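Suppose a colleague, Dr. K., hands you the sequence of a protein chain of 203 amino acids and asks what its three-dimensional shape might be. Before reaching for any lab equipment, you can write down a predicted structure in token form. Begin with the sequence itself:
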Amino acid sequence: MENSQKRIKIKETIIVEGKYDKMRLSPLFDANIIELGGFRIYNSKDRLSLIRRIAAESGIIILTDSDSAGFKLRHYISSAVPKAQITNVFIPNVSGKEKRKAKPGKENLIGVEGMTTEALLEAFKKAGIDPETGTGERKPPFTKAFLYELGLSGGEGSSELRRKLCEVFDLPLLLSANSLAEILPVITTETELFSAVEKIKNS
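The predicted structure, expressed as tokens, is then:
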């Protein structure tokens, strides 16, 4: 795609962990991309203030690795920016390491920089962003009551059920119930979700 098609125009600013993630996305997306600098963002009030301002103006897309460190950074930004100004994009859990690294990370997961073009575009599509036309309309999240009814939130075994459901839909295994509520309406229907949950429970 990088060599044969135009970059996808995204009106939101994309927030990534570091410079290699930005280098990976730049050939794919015509968008403003901001690096967090990893955990250095915790001590950078100016950068966090900039992210808040940009989010208020045009919205942000948060795209971090699917390991625990990536989720900590995602939650940090999410706690500082109103939910309505955020679109979360999640890459799948893929075992391995990036080419530039001598060995895999602690959790043996490939990060954003190592994702294939197809995987990245699919991740954006699951977040409601059309890989052909750019930013699309966001579907309303499933309610907490609906997730509770399915057993995905607030009940015994809900965490394990969410993990198994993430495997079914090729999503990061660490997704919270709130994150699932946002992303599931984009990739499936209530009927399909109900069937998937029932299949897991009966397996």
